[in-house]
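Protein modeling request. Please complete all fields; requests missing the sequence field cannot be processed.
Requester role: graduate student
Desired output: 3D structure, token encoding
Chains: 1
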Amino acid sequence: MDIADICELIYSSTPKQPHSIELDFSELDLTIEEIFQQLLMIFTDGMKRFFGDENGKVDLEHISADDFKLMNEYFHSIGFSISYSINTEPVLKPKQSLKDYHLRLIVKNNIYVISFDILPIKTEIIPTRTEITKVYKNM
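Delivered output (139 residues):
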């Protein structure tokens, strides 16, 4: 599946549940930087689809916190999160994980910094047999 197909799967409807669309970068043997680049292409496609003009150009100065929240909801469906800040410089440190990679976009007097991270999987706590037994005994 290429990036265009992935984008169509992600953005063709409302955001899906977190981790509901499985992307397996491991089979492609990509580096962290290459994964960042793939996520950046997916992000750019979504921004153009939802917030771009007729030429696909996105004016970041008109993107609201709710707009970024929507993009984050789409990214949660593929198991990632988006972080962004305005007017800050990323902390330069060795790039050891996905969240250490940043895209800096300078628009007029603002610096937009965008990064991605892996969305943790929330697990439900399942009661043990002993806990269930105690509940029934106390009824």
